[in-house]
Amino acid sequence: MDFEQVIKNRKSTRQFTDQKVAVEVIKKVLQEAQLAPSWVNSQPYHVHLATGDSLERVRAQQEQLDNSGAKGAPDLPMMSRKDWPAQAQVNMAEWTKGLGAAGKEMGPASAKLYNAQEVLYLTLPKGYSLWSLYDLGSFGNGIVLAATNQGLASMTAYQFIKYPKMLRKELNIADDEEIIIGIGLGYPDDNALVNTIKSRRMNLDDILTIHR
Ligand SMILES: Cc1cc2nc3c(=O)[nH]c(=O)nc-3n(C[C@H](O)[C@H](O)[C@H](O)COP(=O)(O)O)c2cc1C
After folding, report:
1. Which residue ranges have their beta carbon within 6 Å of ligand 1?
2. pLDDT per position as a tens digit, 180-202
3. CATH fit for domain 3-77+86-197, picks 3.40.109.10, 3.40.50.11270, 3.40.50.720, 3.40.1180.10
4. Mean pLDDT of 27-41
5. Rounded to the nearest whole angstrom, what is the distance from the C-alpha of residue 146 to the centroid of ligand 1?
6. Closest by alpha carbon to 152, among 6, 4, 3?
């Protein structure tokens, strides 16, 4: 796929079909994402792929926890929206307001992990340098772009990692690994209202200062 098409076609998908992704395709996506730069080539991340029965066990537990109102307790600290910088608060409020009817489908879809057929959990070893968070984000973006190039839909979400205790138990993830983010992969359900959510970007001039 043309690079510009890849970067423009990638978007968050919140409802996947039941179609699975071949493990060879996922490995190709990850190998391409591994080409991301990292601090002194440290490549600090690890990937856990949940698929098949393992993922179904996680999905069942997630739905139960979500429906019981269990509070998310991710390994990365959370910050209340009101403590974010002002512009970020404006952007988040605008995005939330723009969800419309599709927003009502987000809760039920997310409780079922968006029906993603493959979920990648990206982890860092406990005690990681803060620079590794930059590297992991870069790796994650490589994953979603490489996935788009393979004709896959993707979803980067806190929703996947909000219950790390459950994930550690179900996927046998060691205590010395911090579960940073989850990325769902699969094929998009083109009939789902929740997949019509669009996100705007700020004007470039509002985030760019050119120093001549
Ligand atoms: C670290 C991270 C966590 C996210 N967590 C969620 C989530 O839990 N639920 C959700 O609906 N979207 C989540 N998103 C998706 C963002 O809402 C989305 O990327 C943003 O609105 C831009 O839309 P786009 O990805 O379609 O371009 C997350 C994105 C990132 C990068």
Report:
1. 11-12, 14, 95, 106, 110, 156-159, 181, 199
2. 999 999 999 999 999 999 999 99
3. 3.40.109.10
4. 98
5. 17
6. 6
